[in-house]
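user: can you give me the structure for this one chain? tokens are fine.
assistant: on it. calling the predictor now.
[tool input]
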Amino acid sequence: MGDKQGLQRMRFIHPSSKKLISGVLQQKFVPKRNGNHPNIIPMAEPLEESSTPVEAETVEERGGKKEKRKCITATKWLFYLAWALALTYTLHNISKSVHKYLSKPVSTKINVYHNEHGSMQFPTISLCNLNRVSKSYLEEDDLFAETWDNVSDWKRVNWTRDGMDDIGNVPYQDFYRNSPSWENTKIFCAYAHARRCEDMEIFADRSNMIEEELSPTGKCFRFNPKGVLHSKAGDYGSVYLRLNANRRDYTDTTGQIGFVMAIHHYTQYSSTRNTGIIMSPGLHYRVTLKRIERRELPEEEGGKCNSALQRNSYGAYDLESCHTECRDKQLNASCGCIPVLPPHNIYNYTACSLKQMEECGKMAYHQFVLDESQTSPEKGEERECGCWVPCEHFDYELSVATTAIPREYAAGKIRDGEGRKYNFTVDDFLKNNVILET
């Protein structure tokens, strides 16, 4: 009974304690034979309840559980920490990638297309003679010529001399107005190598063919000023111009001779073009074009352009016209006038006289150029014009090839259709003529 009761009790004890209790029971219930009566087995002594070993084992087990729980808790916290670090690193990389993407320039998609007639709008060609003032105009008055030379060379002028009042009051831009005209510049104009420009219906109105424009660089001619000419690609849409530089009428023959050519949209003006091609006499220039139209999103849609800025005193709004208008405003604030009036004088500026240019205008003009060319961080925004990127802008990508005009070609052009010679020689032709083919 004692053994059975002990075994039954073992059923209700934790399995880890069974081995220990079995050993105790064996010690308690092993029968001892009586020395006097070896065949008599004494009654088994009752099992003494002793839970001390079990309780010691239970405490030890609980301590192990606590240590195990502490280990599991530390592992969890290490996992959470690693997860938080990984999440932070991921968010940091995403933030850097987004910032890098937003800081990159806007990608522009270029499509070349043709309208229903298979033609495209021909650009405006601006030609500015490098001779700003005609020698024949200055030679009309020696004092006039001397004053202009002094102003051009940054020399002080004595305005108290006799006759200087009238000269000092002449508008500065009038000197440019008296440079060679289009009639004295254009020798021949043809379209697609077949038709004379004057015979084309769209050029029946002279204003559709050419306009004169005054700029700080002198007199310029705008060919196709209203954008009425459309052409096909290749030679079918080419314009051929032969121009006379009028070398003999240059006030300074030691400098560059020829023209500056700028190709742009008809809504823009050559006076706002900061770049151009210098064309020298004796050369044939062949220029191929590719028009690029750029559109920007307005600021309210997340872009960088101001949709309210469409036009200004120089026609269509763009960065060049904005800076040119900014220059006019600053010169007018400094001198009360500007050198040359803009095409659209919406601010009612006054053109500087020759005296005003000598005393203030030239210095203010060059100071503005100096300030605008200084783009170091120390400059700040003290003289910034605050120009926005235009919402719509047209550019022309140019490819230029040049070749010398053969003397044989020049010899054939110094005679008219009836064989009569013009009043210039082959050398005159090569020294004065520029051929432009676009």
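assistant: here you go. Residues 52-103 form the longest helix (52 residues). The first strand starts at residue 120 and ends at 121.
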